[in-house]
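haha ok so turns out i had the wrong file open the whole time. this is the CORRECT one, sorry everyone. sequence first:
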Amino acid sequence: MAKIADIDLGDFPLLLAPMEDVSDPPFRALCKQQGCDMMYTEFISVEGLIRDATKSVQKLDIYEEERPIGVQIFGAELDSMMRAAEIVEEAKPEVLDINFGCPVKKVVCKMAGAGILQDIPRMVELTKAVVNSTNLPVTVKTRLGWDEQSKKIEEVAERLQDVGIKALSIHGRTRKQMYKGEADWSLIGKIKENPRIHIPIIGNGDINSPQKAVEYKNRYGVDGIMIGRASIGNPWIFREIKHYVATGEILAPPTLDERVDAARQHLLHSVEWKGDTLGVLEMRRHYTNYFRSLPGVKQYRSKLVTEHDIPTLLAVMEEIRNRYSGFEFERQVQSAR
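then structure:
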């Protein structure tokens, strides 16, 4: 059983990774419906939070049906991190997560996100300060190291556990790799074998099928798996993995009606939460996966990613529903290698 502090997440929890402009409330609602055990907000700038920036504060929106949920913050200044932790606590999430893994240049250049992997003592100092500033359980998401020559994650895991974090999520790449190449879970497995480590270790990186999830669970012994990019436009991955873990069988893929209904719900909630312009724009990355495998769907997808009018977008979805009625989707059978 995996527990973060007193939060029981079940035998083998599946977590939704925090993703900028993706893991917002409209998308989280879909993932929760499909069996996601715990979700995180998009990462929030501590500087934005303490300055009451609208975009940062809006990301603190939490809905009761989403729980348990973690709010993820990033920053590099001790005082700002501590003040932000107090603000997050007022939003009453179950968990406060610190991002020490984002590889994007504009974050890294401020020594935030994965930038802190160049200064492990500072990383430990910041973490300790946040732990001491809040009553919430604090977790961390990070990477193996800054580059191939500085994979210090085994040391990091021990030191962060020692200052009081309650779980550690590890993306199996260095900052230098960004999202390229194959994620290396071997060091994640070593941390699980370390007798000193008693907090849950969550593996992250490249999990894109039920078979791969189960193989990595068995091979590396992780307490749970965090899924990011493979969930974009594909919230069903959570139920597919859960079914495979429980039965060893590949679940039938979502039907056309399920895909259209999910896309409709997603768009309408996105517009409701972000406004018409941003709500329409930030949906566009999801359409490819929602309607993947449909022959000749490109003409419809082109409309979905260029059209701004909401009734027109909904009408295009209904055109897809009518055009492909009865289409049989193939089961996704993927090797772990």
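The two ends are 28 Å apart (CA to CA).
again sry for the mixup
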